[in-house]
Amino acid sequence: MKKILSVSLLTLMLCSCGGQKELYSWGNYDKTSYNYLKNADEDSQQELMKNYQEIINGPKKGKKNIPPGVCADYGYLLVKQGKVGKGKEMLKKEIALYPESKIFIDRILKMIDE
Amino acid sequence: MKKPFLILALISIGLLTSCGPKIAKSKAYEGMYNEKPLSVLLMPPINRSTNVEAKQYFHSTLSKPIDNAGYYVISPFLSMAILKKESAYNSEMFLNSSLTKFRKIFGADIAVFTIINKWDKSALASNVKVDVDYIFKSTKTNEILYTRNAHITYDTSVGGGLIGMALSAVSTAITKYVDVARTCNEYTLKDLPAGKYSPKYLKDGKEIAGKKEFSKTF
Asked: Where are the alpha helices (DSSP H) in chain B?
């Protein structure tokens, strides 16, 4: 009887969860993005950029593991630091991963070249 | 012997009745299924509460749940920088105006507005009560495609550490407030129809939609 109960409960719990798995790996994004948004100083920027690097170079490479916007935001911060070449490369990577970003990112690339 | 079944029956009833009136997602969010938006522009939250910090709590935790639902959220920090540069950082200006320009400049299908109506902290009850509107508007038609009004009560005496957000540079109080916003965003946006990158894309129309206005305690 106990077995039936626990199996039923488990089934019930699984069903009610909806089985939504995260599509992407985020690392510490909750923390690093909040800190940067709040402080926008050197430390918080470094921390956020490190987070982006870990996501981009993470063990599970490939489209599904790099969330939308990560390459572009990383590229933007690189350009801000004066690393224009590497930054543009990341911005282009965003377009390659997510073609729907092309309208906006092309505009940014043009702004960098001006 | 019969007791376990009774418990199970009670739990089932509880789960079923908590769903409220049953409207399918395809009906509740018809515009989302018709327009099939992909690119999402986050507008900086409109803060009508008395807590100045609330804006950042909500802003920083908004992109993840929408990305995880299968949408393309336009680079949050880059788009924010451009909105600031164009003196468009005050979303209030655009709430009732044409959004075509956001389609043209950002390639956005949807602009997401959040309005923090209330952020009340009670030291005695050690909780935070928030009232937040979520409005997803089409940049094509200006129509509202998805909207929910969340009334969340969040117990700040427990939790926080559970999520494992060990914030070194941030006090525990602030960690908890970020948790309040994150929980509110995640719970409210869980009802979003699945976007293109979700395995459930266009397969969830028959699921029951959550209530438009709801209260929930965490």
From this structure: 3-17, 25-28, 30-35, 54-60, 63-68, 76-85, 100-106, 172-189
**Cβ within 8 Å, pair B8-A2:** no
Per-residue pLDDT at B146 exceeds 80: yes
**B-interface mutation test, from A104, A105, A112, A114, most B Cβ less than 10 A away:** A104
pLDDT digit string, tens, across residues B23-44: 999 999 999 999 999 999 999 9
Task: List chain B residues with CB under 8 Å of A30.
Answer: 60-61, 64, 163, 165, 178, 182
- Chain A hits for B76, CB-CB cut-off 8 Å, are 33, 69, 73
Is the pTM for the entire model greater than 0.95? no
pLDDT in tens, B181-194: 999 999 999 999 99
Long-range contact pairs involving B126-132 (C-beta distance under 8 Å, separation at least 24): B126/B155, B126/B156, B126/B157, B127/B153, B127/B154, B127/B155, B127/B156, B127/B157, B128/B153, B128/B154, B128/B156, B128/B177, B128/B180, B129/B153, B129/B154, B130/B49, B130/B54, B130/B154, B130/B180, B130/B181, B130/B184, B132/B58, B132/B184, B132/B188
Q: Look up the ipTM and state it.
A: 0.82
pLDDT reading at B129 higher than 90: yes
8 Å CB contact of B106 and A103: yes
| pLDDT, tens only, A54-91 | 999 876 655 457 999 999 999 999 999 999 999 999 99
Give CA–CA dist B165/B161, Å, rounded.
Answer: 6
Asked if B144 reaches chain A (Cβ–Cβ under 8 Å), the answer is no
